[in-house]
Structures are given as C-alpha cells and as structure tokens.
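QA checklist item 7 of 12: single-chain prediction sanity check.
[x] sequence parsed
[x] length recorded as 438
[x] structure emitted
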Amino acid sequence: MADYASKMIPVERALDLVSDGDVITVGLAANEPPSFLMNLHQIADRVKDVTITNCLPSVPGEYLKEEHVRKAFYIDSWFSTPLLRRLTHTGRVSYIPNNLHFAGLKRNQHRTSSIMISLASPPGPDGLIRFACGNTYEELIGATAKYRILEVSPNAPRCYGQNYLDPDSIDYIIESDAAPCAIDATEPNEKDMVIGRFIADLVNDGDCVQVGIGGIPNAVCQYFYEKKDLGIHTEMMTTGIMDLIKAGVVTGSRKQVDTGLTVFAFALGSPELYSFIHENDSLFTGRGEEVNDPYVIARNDNQVSINTTVEIDLTGQCCSESIGTLQISGSGGQADTAIGAQNSKNGRSIIALYSTVEKKNQETGEMEVTSKIVPTLRPGAGVTLSRNDVDWVVTEYGAVQLRGTTVRERVQLLSSIAHPAFREDLLAAAREFGYIVR
C-alpha cells in the first residue's frame, strides 16, 4: 500500500470531490461514515442532483433535512428507515428493489458510483484497513467507483474476513473518532414469546441458523438457550447471536462448511457487539454477494432461515417491506435466505408474524384491529417472498407448513393460525375467489 499518510485528507477535501450529478454510495448501516455524512449538508448550496445511495441509513445528518434534500440531493436506498420515510413526500427518495446478494452487482450494472465511502478500522498487523462492520456491497461498489474513500476511526471494530479493499485501490482516507451507529435491542412481548416458542420447536440441536433483529427474533434467541451446537450462517450478526456464542450455545461444530465459524455479511447492534466482533477469530465477515447467495447458504445441511413479514395473503404471498405503497423497510435477504435454506439438506424456512395489527381508522379516528393474514395483499404491496418460496408460517396461534401445498390447502392452513375473530371472513373470501368450495 502507498504511504498511509499520503492518502489522508480532511473531510472538507472529500466534500470538494463531489460534483453535480454524482452518485455517492455509503456503507451499510454501521458502516455509514459519520463524519462525512454529518458534514454533507455543507455542500447543498454548491451542488445539485447528487444521489446518495444507502442501505439501512442510521446517521441522522443534516443533509437529510427536507430543505437540503429538495435543493441538492436524491436518496436511493436498498432498505428504508424512519429517516427516509419522513421524506417520501418530497419525491426525492426512492427505493431500489433488490435481493441483497445482487444489490451491489445490479446497481453497478445500472449506475456506477462517483464515490464509495465507508467507515473502517485502522490498519491491523496485516496492514489491511478493514470495513468496520461488514462487506455487504462496499467492496463491489468500490470496484467500479471513481473514488474509494475510507473514514478510519480507532473506535471502529476490526473484523476478520473478506471485508477490505485492495490497499492500493484506496484513494483517500479521512480520520475521525466516530463509532459505528448502535441500535437498542427490542424487548420481546408476550406475543413474541409465544411465536418464539413455536419457532424454536422447529429448530434442532446442531442446525445452522439465520436470524435477524426485532421482538420475534429476540424471543427466538431466548429459547435457543435450550439448544446445543447451533451453527450460524446469517446475513446479519446481532447482539442476540453474540449472547448465544458467549453462552456456548453456538459452536458451529456441526457445520459442513466453515466449521466452527460464525459467518455473516454485516453486524448491527449494541456497542458491546462491536467490541465482541473486534479481532474475534471465531467470526468471519464475508462478501454479501457470497454470504447471501442461496447456493452458498445451501451448502450447510439443516440450514434454518427465520424472517418476519408485514402481511401474508391466502395463497402465501408475503409482503415484508411495505404498507401498501409506503415503503417501510426493504427486501433485504429474505428471499436469499429462505430459498437458500430450502435448498439445504433438511433445511427449513420460517416466516413469522402477529395474527393482527391495531391501527387508527383515518375516517373515524378510532383504533381498529385488523388481520395480518389477508385475502389479498393491499394495493401496491411489495411481494418480498413469492408464494412459490414460502415454507413454514408462524403466528401466536401456531405453525403451519405450506411447502408443496395447493392454494385450497393453504387457505385452510393459514386460516387455522389467523386470529379466531377473522377466520370465517377469510374462508368466506376464499369461497368468493373460488379457492375453496362454497
């Protein structure tokens, strides 16, 4: 690598590199470069039509204020968050439909980036400057970008694996003392624990698991303390997984591939998690295009994917990312991991959801309870997991397997785990559609 010091520039110099019409791709979630993003608004009066491409944006920089977005920036995102949802009405924020393992590749085929910038750790003993918390698309985007910039902080973890750029390809380095963005763990509620119990009962000792974050996944992790020798091949490394490793539940000893290693594409969680992944040689950070490739996932036997959804229709279509036309999250790796798990020998894919949701009636202002198992998805809903790829579905009323079933059978199975107050309505709709006999 060329002299480290020769590549160092102040953040102001990095901002000077941005021109009208440029595309800036920032690292995913905890890889977002805080110093760069917290200063980005300073060029809003100088540039126009600059596109910020992100995924799970978490740094609340002033560039996301409506006045700056309308003036200078477009935001293209692989995964929406509340920071972006409040800007939807501006017409300057747009979702990039994707399956995560193809996100970087397909984006490069559409638009190359002017700048790829990510948070990173200082050089280690091997001389490599590593992305702080993963390599979901950062390296891939950087391969075609005009400039590759790393924001290097001593407070960023150094993770082992395939999470770095060729040292000589790094164009500039910004030094900061930023820490990766952290998120609080969601405490499971009563419904989460019931659903978690059903899911845990579908997982055996020695299985290889993918699990995310949220109330239901956190409940599942609590029940996993009953298991032995679980393996992990997952999109996201979480605080819950860390706790299971520390407790000796996760050993990876029965994995056929990467035996003994916990494999992930990115980490997101508590400050304790970031300390845990720092120089931990039992963990392996892989490239997102490989970790989330369904064929790679399937190489381990007994792979189990655990995901959640917003609503599911009577044929099995899962919308996990929008409420009608309102984008609230993203596809992420749901299809990647579900298909990968089902291609694994003895693998299983699990989709979980509450049977109902309480929401305000916009006309009356009153709170109403509606079913999340529905006759048809809402108009504009994004189908995250097709009905061809759904396997197990779990609510607080039970678990049913849809693999290989007909639409007629799915109506009966899904109705059986719907809230009892809505089961007859669902069956009536199914009769109207001709799914079942009147």
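[x] summary fact logged: Residues 313 and 376 are 5 Å apart (CA to CA).
[ ] second reviewer sign-off
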